[in-house]
Amino acid sequence: MPEGDTIYRAARALQKAIGGKVVTGFETGLAKLARVNDDAPLVGRTVEKVESRGKWCLIFFSGDLILVTHMLMSGSWHLYRTREKWWMGRDRMRVVVRTAEWEAVGFNVPVAEFHTARSLERSSQVPKLGPDVLSDEFTVEGGVSRLAAYGTENPDAEIAVVLLNQRVLAGLGNVYKSEVAFAAGVNPFRAMRTITSREREVMVEVSRRYMKANVVDGSSSLGGEDGIVTYSGNRRTTHSSNREERLWVYGRQGQECRRCGATVMMRKQGLQARSTYWCPECQPWVGMGETAAPVGRVAVVRRGKIGC
């Protein structure tokens, strides 16, 4: 799933390409978007701005119309020059916004809605989001307060599950969840009631620092690979320039911890059974009462092919 940094970069690229431009064409494979376009055509409107809020991308058009998209696991925004060949087939196209020079194409977009400013506040998920870690208005103090308040109301919630809760902090995803907990030395399965104020502060500060570092605009390129602007790129949390050493624990099940040499473990966590990675030495267990320390897999499970 694209995380907040990916959507931030996508919105920035879309803003550079189509922001301030007049819409010359609109296509969609989604009936609910088509109905809105039939009643209130996009052609002739101006793209006022494109911005991200957590994992949501919002395209604002003149005349009080907003296209709100969420990529979930499979969606992506692409940018192409007019009449340039698309990298994916038309059967995967869900929405196209055309200007004189660019085509912004949403492929496999699972969530796409039109809103007015009023309906966005009343009927969408966006107003329910916690503070966006990448927002200019975000503060570490505010983020810490959100974590503390949620912990007070949900003392048994596991910290890594809370870091994924977009109503607490918006933008963090599965990769950052594991990386942030590691950087703070916090076992991801600890209950919120065991998390100290200093640990909350470190996790929020690291979240902000990691994500800001991964949205630095290091080139003039509008896209990532093949025009894809929701391309996750080489997300990095370590200081290593080696592409194979860019993350501390995520995806490194069974390998040596880069810091202490212990074996990195993985375990499914939460109602959605998301993969969580951690080092049992760098992130010691602090349980309550007789609660046992979590045990994860060490070896990567290899499944054989099914069928031909």
Which helices and strands occur, and which strands form pairs?
Layout: H1 4-18, E1 25-28, H2 31-39, E2 47-53, E3 56-61, E4 65-70, E5 76-81, E6 93-98, E7 102-107, E8 111-115, H3 117-123, H4 140-153, H5 159-164, H6 174-184, H7 197-213, E9 265-269, E10 274-278
Antiparallel strand pairs: 1-6, 2-3, 3-4, 4-8, 5-7, 6-7, 9-10
Helix pairs in contact: 4-7, 6-7
Task: Describe what you observe in this structure.
The chain has 308 residues and is an alpha+beta fold. The chain has a domain at 4-128: MutM-like, N-terminal (N-terminal domain of MutM-like DNA repair proteins), CATH 3.20.190. Helix content is 26%, strand content 18%. The protein has seven helices and ten strands. The protein has helices at residues 4-18, 31-39, 117-123, 140-153, 159-164, 174-184, 197-213, and strands spanning 25-28, 47-53, 56-61, 65-70, 76-81, 93-98, 102-107, 111-115, 265-269, 274-278. The strands form three sheets. A four-stranded antiparallel β-sheet has the order 1-6-7-5. A hairpin with a 3-residue loop joins strand 3 (56-61) and strand 4 (65-70). Helix 4 (140-153) packs across helix 7 (197-213) and helix 6 (174-184) crosses helix 7. The protein is elongated, with a radius of gyration of 21 Å. Mean pLDDT is 90; it is low at 219-223 and 301-308. Residues 2-93 form the Formamidopyrimidine-DNA glycosylase catalytic domain. Residues 248-284 form the FPG-type domain.
